[in-house]
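Journal club prep — side note

Before the paper discussion, L.F. wants everyone to see what a predicted structure for a comparable chain looks like in token form. Sequence:
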Amino acid sequence: MIRIILTGILVLCISQILFAQDANYWSASYGPGGFFTPGAVIANNQDSGVLFYNPALQALTKKKTASISGTIYQLESIKVKNGAGTGKDLHSRITSSVPQMLSGIVSVGRRKPVYFGYALTRVSVLNYNVSQQQDAKLDVIDTGRSPGLEYYVGQYNFQNHTRETSALISTGFRLSNRWAIGFMAEGQSRSQHYSEAFTSRALVNDNTSSTQPLASNEGAYQVDYYHIGLRLKLGLSYEAGKHHLGLLLSSPLIHLRGRGTLLSNNAVANVHFIDDEPVNLLANTRQTNLKTNYKVPASIALGYAYDYNRGQVYAAAEYFMKVKDYNILTPRPEFFIRPDTGSSNSSTVALLEMREARKAIFNISVGVSYRLKPLLTGYCSFRTDFNYADRKDTDGFLPNTSTWDNYYCQLGVNVKRSKYNLRTGILLGYGHTNSYRQPINFDDPKESNLLSGTIGTVPATRMTAALMIAFIHNL
């Protein structure tokens, strides 16, 4: 019975550092709404000659090109107001400036050349880093055991760095004057560093001892993993004068390989959580070479573009299928709670696994281009980026950071020359929620809540601003 009780306490301890997901498909500047990444469209890429999204469009562009696209400067801010207690905001502000994509089209053969498209992309999915501390005299310990206020120190830190790199190759063929078909293979490499930890400690006012006993609760969970997968895509294109239609079918991500490392440490000492007897608990493990499996569902994308006398109107939508609850990383049932009597390791998997589930999502994008001068075109687009998080229980850990919808707008221009096109603009993104669950609350640490405070919900905001550029060279 005591083992069951201690396992229950450990579940409560770990649940204090369960963080919510950041789970979005259209966060990157590449995709149906990414007007400033030429070729990142479904229906029509005009005369850019660059293709990496709908491979059917490749059959319509008979020229060799190369393009470098990226973010010259980007600022991303994620702020959880009162995230660790009143006035204890969790605020991550990250700047970056790196090229993120190389793409183009090459031909094979002379008499009847076959054109192949390629792209190498690098996306910083998330770069989140926060910390907070409370150092004060508070009423933490029961008055009967420790009269007056206690010296209390609490700390919290969280890092979540997720990156994806993709290599694409594609080709397209005409079926008729109006119809074209294309095929694409996309290899994807994903890596993530997830590290979350807290300490919560109070000195007990004990006049019967020459030293003050320490009541404490601390927990840490760290995962580093990589995953390699493959997606296959089939594209269709239809051209009828001023009207352009595109359809893209994408397969689920096919698992090829993945490995991860897990580190966890939890300790509770001298905390009177249930009755007069102090609770002392130690749980610790490190596991390497764990198999990982990261899933991306099948999707269906549809695009439409209409040419008018001064430019083009564009609309696109993509539907992503549901993904049932699954494990990204599954620990082995090894020793975790100490001392182990032979049965405690049966709970290791449920306590330490990293899991997620995804609901079906439907994103939309609209855009317009307008020819300002014969060689100068302006662009504007707007897109949704809805959150797919669908975990209902608290077993294990969730992989990312935000649980709200985001919205993005792009504004910019394209300068056309005989040998190249230069496209540049700004990206603005915004997302907000009023129901973000705190990971810890330093306002009222008590023995009854294992010195972790009463967890509530608070506002959280995500803002993005980026200066983007694309250079397209006609070979």
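L.F.'s comment for the group: Confidence is low (pLDDT under 50) at residues 1-5. Keep this in mind when we get to the figures.
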